[in-house]
Amino acid sequence: MRRGVLGLLAAAFAITGTSASAQVRDAVYRGTMVCAKLPFTVGNGREAIEVTIAGNAVRYIHAVRLHGAAAPTSETGTGALNGNNISLQGSWKSGNRQYEAKYSGAFVRRHASLKGTQVWSDGGKTVSRTCSGSIKRPLKPFLPREQK
Predict the structure, then answer these.
(1) Residue at 130 is within a domain
(2) What is the 3-state secondary structure (H, E, C) of the chain?
């Protein structure tokens, strides 16, 4: 009797108890990053970010907007996953302006909150600003199905 109960409990735990590493991570995550004001911008930056995770490969693209218009190029970069933690590193350059960016965060279910900094160089001056935001993937039924 006791073995039966223990076996039933183990089976119930195996069905309902899924670890974070068993969650679906491979997907395109979309969201928004809000960054502090720069000396040469009107206000805070609020731009779209898209993070693609495929296996252990992480890459992202983040829109850059200066003076109310989108820049001709976007910030791009790569990243890494370590359990529920994600880290991103990238850069952007246009003319004499450029920056290096680092963001990190942690996944909770199907979204991650990100925080980080951008270090800008503009005409010999260096300015750092903080950024924060979140990314989210679609619900599992809306993810592309695996090809067999």
Answers:
(1) yes
(2) CHHHHHHHHHHHHHHHCCCHHHCCCCEEEEEEEEECCCCCCCCCEEEEEEEEEECCEEEEEECCEECCEECCCCEEEEEEEECCEEEEEEEEEECCEEEEEEEEEEEECCEEEEEEEEEEEECCEEEEEEEEEEEECCCHHHCCCCCC
Domain total in the chain: 1
Half-sphere exposure (Cβ direction) of 105: Cα atoms closer than 13 Å? 21
Amino acid present at 65: R
Residue 2 belongs to a domain = no
Closest CA to 38 of 71, 60, 61: 71
The one-letter amino acid code at 1 reads: M
Expressed as residue numbers, the domain containing 101 is 27-139
For residue range 86-134, list pLDDT tens digits in order: 999 999 999 889 999 999 999 998 899 999 999 999 888 999 999 999 9
In a domain, 61, yes or no: yes
Domain assignment present for residue 46? The answer is yes
